[in-house]
Amino acid sequence: MIIFKTVSQLGFFIDKMKASEKKIGFVPTMGALHLGHISLINNSKQQNDITVCSIFVNPTQFNNATDFEKYPVTIETDLDKLEAAGCDAVFLPNAEEVYPKRNATPVYTLGYLETLMEGKFRPGHYQGVCQVVDRLLALVKPANLYLGQKDYQQCMVIKKLIEHKNIDTVIHIEKTVREHDGLAMSSRNARLNDFERKQAVKIFETLSFIKNNLKPGRLESIKGQATAFLSANGFKVDYVEIADAASLEILQQWNGTTSIVALVAAYLNEVRLIDNFVLD
Ligand code: AMP
After folding, report:
1. Which helix (H) or strand (E) holds 138?
2. pTM above 0.85?
3. Among the residues of 54-103, which ranges form H helices?
4. Under CATH, which architecture does the 2-174 domain have?
5. Where are the domains of the chain?
6. CA nearest ligand 1 atom 13, residue
7. For a substitution probing ligand 1, which of 26, 29, 67, 68 has the most ligand atoms within 8 Å of its CB?
8. Ligand 1 touching residue 186 (CB < 6 A)
9. What is the pLDDT of residues 6-62, one digit of tens each?
């Protein structure tokens, strides 16, 4: 596995791969890797000649300084995991490599996607996501990009970025990998203490409750029950929403046929967790 720390080293490698018509699959991450990330690597390996992973804790997508400072960093074990998974190349840049001072900060038109749920509760977050993904795609030039459904809204934002900028990369959205009890794997889970870790499964239980009790008609009551359940279990809830799975338009009622997605974001003390279920 080759490790690149600079844009110029990476660029040289990518040019060589492109010249020999190798198909590149790309998995961008912020590190503290778990089996969710590795499932993306595995999918990329099956569908491409070369798999590139990036590890970069992107400062521009954090709207909360403490969250950024406390984001887990485990580079050595990350590299071991990537090596074991058969990843071909890792890009480990610092912030100056990703954001050279001479470059102006681009602004992305994301419309309503930026005004609801994660966009609403984390102002500026998706601008930061677009900045880093746009830059990384320009450097890695992948044929295929692998993203996790766990970050459902982020997948839609990146889809929009790729469409708007006419980037020649196909997005693959992979299903959420979960712990044995159902908790979605997340780098932030490492910040949970034992009690919080036990409580965290209530997010999965909330989504299961919505899935099992959802009926056509108005959605207020089920969303209210779900929020109350989380609050009663010590969460500070940012949102429980049910949205059109294709457009992410928030629905007040369901016709019983549209494919929908239930999404939750909630804090356990300092740690913010998100998850979602697509309900077909
Ligand atoms: P992150 O390191 O959190 O920025 O995530 C990097 C990529 O891994 C993103 O596309 C995430 O959606 C994806 N990912 C994170 N958690 C999971 C999971 N539990 N299952 C599958 N993919 C995930």
Report:
1. helix 125-140
2. yes
3. 65-69, 75-85, 95-98
4. 3-Layer(aba) Sandwich (3.40)
5. 2-174, 187-279
6. 148
7. 29
8. yes
9. 999 999 999 999 999 999 999 999 999 999 999 999 999 999 999 999 999 999 999
